[in-house]
């Protein structure tokens, strides 16, 4: 739960009497005077709340009574806003006065797949205005799926003189102009991370904008920034950043340049290698740098990624660190099983492994033999299409389940799958918390039996007792939702696409899964009566997304009418407003403590 | 083969849906939106008539393979790294917009706009200014600003001189000119 829960309205008077009775209960000492309620509060503040860091614990504490509510509000320093529209910035700055760190999430996840029209919203500017006025001591900003402009970055740099950490994940709207301002003006910046974020090339050399003296940089991550970099400036920057531990380079950095950076920063713990390719044609006589020794010098390197345009022959350079790596991301490296094997068989400490399906079932076999400690696996498709053969299948999934018993999280793209393999994984990997299987062909059944994939996913929810996140795919009937509703008692996040037969499917989910927070559904035959089945639960959810389903505008209006604390957005994805459509294109609903957002564009109707 | 099994299961299953609703299951996903799959989709159960009006606006590419927006759910930067960039409806047509005197560039996606009026309205609200009426002979009257663009050859042209589609494909960058430079453009045409 986050900030956006109902605020309690408790009688402070009652609380006072509770406090004093509790305190004065014991003692025959006549000189003993019970502390006043204010003193109790002070003790509480000092001794208890100060140590509470978990927002869930703090939320609970704030519900005890009005004094605790106030005390908690004064001492909370980290804020998490799971949905930027669930609460107004003003309400937040009124309640919490001492915020040092803030995390804000904006657009729903399906926007990553172009299902949300651009200019939908999630503008950081609205929050920034309020924050700039109230939180001058702000040190950390984390934004996910927010729209941020260069002006926003300028205001950020000016308003928060103590800013230490800036992290952007899946954001957009700014360019290297904005980065230059941050580099130039945020004198205390320690962490600057751009992850999967779209950065425009404003043709500004932002790396040169960092101040000339020794920096306190600990983390510089810009592998997603697709613009050329002034390498000499970067090299000097790394040389004068003795605290640098995390460095992720973009694909404009060649392997030769990588070498030069690595020998200046052997203390790195996290490295993104950039292109891992040579940009120049190397003359025969020219000596290739000793990449092996550069990696050998990095005694603390535990997380390796990058390889954006890899020349596979260079991969052997990383052998010296394989034995200490806990995380290896090869998901941009189109390499074969044969090319992977010599590397992976040395990675016995690996806990996180991301790869392309080019490694095939055979490559996964090598992983399952070598990486007994594996907790997280992600296999991405080289060709994200529906009608191709596909090099990974149920064979790879099965072998992973047999070798990597400690698996907690899996994301697996494939073209064919069987229930048997999924059932086997549900039994072999009981610690699974995240299970996301994407069979890329829509409505594809078990390719051996021809059956729907209901039983496989059913086994996952039944046997994996710690499961909180699930994504389903393939041919699925209402039955799979019955299973999920029956067994998915801890499920918080669920993604569904091209599945189900009728309203029953969604009903099972909404009636059966009490912890469901985030539900995203596309292209399923769920209609209004299913929508109404969730009325008892929508206030407890962060959001629900339904696109290309069978929900009508009247149905959405009815939900909005019955639940005034809910914002129900109907989003048209076509360019024209098509009034004759029976069903809405997209419905996105979320709870909100305040009036609906004033910045909705013309294609969004808030009911 | 997959579809035969599909139909058999549906025939024997007890459901609460109204009779006859089953056939339209998959039609919903593709029918009502100009960004969804074209009528030539793989799914047999579609006999959609409704999409006629929309199909004119559909992507024209999908003769052989049906193309569903956002499926498989792989983020675009993962796709573009490994395959040659495809100009499909998923990638926007972003151009930078600069204005004389403004310190920052903005970015717009030309695909989002229906035509010049739409685009100009957006620029007006983005930069908080008025652009004025376009006329072929006199350019933009009634304001000190004129929207110009750089085309493929690097020439600076006045926005509105060529048909919208031609503009979309040749515009590389937008520049909002101010003052005398704006007037100059008008006469240059």
TrEMBL record, chain A:
Entries under InterPro entries matching the protein: COI1_F-box, Leu-rich_rpt_Cys-con_subtyp, LRR_dom_sf, Transp_inhibit
Domain COI1 F-box: 38-77
Cellular component, GO, one term: SCF ubiquitin ligase complex
Stretches the record annotates as Disordered: 1-33
Keywords of the record: Auxin signaling pathway, Nucleus, Ubl conjugation pathway
Annotated Pfam families: F-box_5, Transp_inhibit
Gene3D superfamilies, A to Z: 1.20.1280.50, Ribonuclease Inhibitor (3.80.10.10)
Pathway info: Protein modification; protein ubiquitination
Localization: Nucleus
Keyword Nucleus recorded: yes
Residues in Transport inhibitor response domain copies: 98-143
GO biological process, one term: auxin-activated signaling pathway
Subunit structure: Part of a SCF (SKP1-cullin-F-box) protein ligase complex. May interact with auxin and auxin-responsive proteins.
Protein name: Transport inhibitor response 1
From TrEMBL, chain B:
Cell compartment(s), UniProt: Nucleus
Source taxon at top rank: Eukaryota
Membrane found in the keyword field: no
A cellular-component GO term for this protein: nucleus
The family this protein is said to belong to: Belongs to the Aux/IAA family.
Subunit note: Homodimers and heterodimers.
Stated name of the protein: Auxin-responsive protein
Provenance organism: Olea europaea subsp. europaea
Organismal lineage: Eukaryota, Viridiplantae, Streptophyta, Embryophyta, Tracheophyta
């Amino acid at each position: 739960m986050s900030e956006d829960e109902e605020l309690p309205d408790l009688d402070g008077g009652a609380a006072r009497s509770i406090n004093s009775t509790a305190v004065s209960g014991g003692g025959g000492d006549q000189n003993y005077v019970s502390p006043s309620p204010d003193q109790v509060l002070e003790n509480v503040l000092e001794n208890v709340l100060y140590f509470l860091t978990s927002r869930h614990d703090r939320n609970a504490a704030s519900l005890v009574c009005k004094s605790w509510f106030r005390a908690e509000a004064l001492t909370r320093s980290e804020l998490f806003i799971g949905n930027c529209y669930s609460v107004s910035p003003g309400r937040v700055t009124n309640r919490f006065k001492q915020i040092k760190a803030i995390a804000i999430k904006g657009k729903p996840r399906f926007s990553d797949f172009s299902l949300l029209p651009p200019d939908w919203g999630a503008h950081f500017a609205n929050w920034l205005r309020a924050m700039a006025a109230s939180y001058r001591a702000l040190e950390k900003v984390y934004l996910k799926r927010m729209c941020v402009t260069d002006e926003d970055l300028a205001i950020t740099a000016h308003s928060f003189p103590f800013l230490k950490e800036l992290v952007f994940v899946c954001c957009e709207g700014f360019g290297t102009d904005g980065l230059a301002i941050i580099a130039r003006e945020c004198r205390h910046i320690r962490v600057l991370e751009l992850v999967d974020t779209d950065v425009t090339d404003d043709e500004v050399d932002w790396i040169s904008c960092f101040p000339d003296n020794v920096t306190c940089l600990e983390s510089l991550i810009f592998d997603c920034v697709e613009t050329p970099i002034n390498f000499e400036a970067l090299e000097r920057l790394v040389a004068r950043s003795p605290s640098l531990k995390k460095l992720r380079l973009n694909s404009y950095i060649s392997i030769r340049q990588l070498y030069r950076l690595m020998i200046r920063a052997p203390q790195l713990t996290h490295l993104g290698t950039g292109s891992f390719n040579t940009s120049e044609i190397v003359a025969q006589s020219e000596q290739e740098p000793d990449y092996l020794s550069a990696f050998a010098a990095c005694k603390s390197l535990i997380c390796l990624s990058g390889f954006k345009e890899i020349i596979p022959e260079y991969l052997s350079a990383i052998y010296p660190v394989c034995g200490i790596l806990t995380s290896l991301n090869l998901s941009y490296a189109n390499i074969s099983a044969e090319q992977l094997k010599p590397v992976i068989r040395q990675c016995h400490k690996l806990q996180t492994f991301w790869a392309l399906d080019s490694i095939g079932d055979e490559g996964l076999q090598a992983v399952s033999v070598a990486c007994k400690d594996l907790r997280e696996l992600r296999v991405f498709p080289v060709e994200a299409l529906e009608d191709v053969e596909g090099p990974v299948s149920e064979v790879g999934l099965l072998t992973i389940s047999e070798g990597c018993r400690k698996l907690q999280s899996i994301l697996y793209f494939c073209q064919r799958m069987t229930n048997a393999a999924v059932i086997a994984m549900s039994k072999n990997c009981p610690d699974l918390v995240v299970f996301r299987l994407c069979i890329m062909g829509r409505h594809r059944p078990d390719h051996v039996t021809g059956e729907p994939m209901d039983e496989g996913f059913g086994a996952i929810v039944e046997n994996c007792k710690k499961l909180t996140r699930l994504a389903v795919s393939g041919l699925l009937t209402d039955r799979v939702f019955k299973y999920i509703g029956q067994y998915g008692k801890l499920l918080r996040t669920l993604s569904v696409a091209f599945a189900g037969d009728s309203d029953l499917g969604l009903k099972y989910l909404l009636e059966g899964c009490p912890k469901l927070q985030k539900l995203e559904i596309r292209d399923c035959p769920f209609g209004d009566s299913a929508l109404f089945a969730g009325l008892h639960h929508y206030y407890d959810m962060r959001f629900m997304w339904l696109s290309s389903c069978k929900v009508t505008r009247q149905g959405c209006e009815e939900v909005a009418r019955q639940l005034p604390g809910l914002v129900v957005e109907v989003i048209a994805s076509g360019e024209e407003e098509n009034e004759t459509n029976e069903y809405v294109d997209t419905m996105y609903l979320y709870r909100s403590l305040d009036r609906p957002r004033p910045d909705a564009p013309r294609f969004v109707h808030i009911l | 083969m997959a579809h035969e099994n599909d139909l058999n299961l549906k025939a024997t299953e007890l459901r609460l849906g109204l009779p006859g609703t089953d056939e339209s299951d998959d039609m919903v996903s593709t029918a009502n939106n100009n960004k969804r799959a074209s009528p030539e989709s793989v799914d047999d159960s579609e006999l959609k008539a409704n999409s006629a009006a929309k199909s004119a606006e559909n992507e024209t590419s999908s003769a052989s393979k049906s193309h569903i927006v956002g499926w498989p759910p792989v983020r675009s930067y993962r796709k573009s790294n490994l395959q040659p960039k495809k100009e499909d409806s998923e990638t926007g047509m972003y151009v930078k917009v600069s204005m004389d005197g403004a310190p920052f560039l903005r970015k717009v996606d030309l695909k989002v706009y229906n035509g010049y009026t739409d685009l100009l309205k957006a620029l007006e609200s983005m930069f908080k200014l008025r652009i004025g009426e376009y006329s072929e002979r006199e350019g933009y009257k009634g304001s000190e600003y004129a929207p110009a663009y750089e085309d493929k050859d690097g020439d600076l042209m006045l926005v509105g001189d060529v048909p919208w589609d031609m503009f979309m494909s040749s515009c590389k960058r937008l520049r909002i000119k101010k003052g005398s430079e704006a007037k100059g453009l008008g006469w240059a045409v």
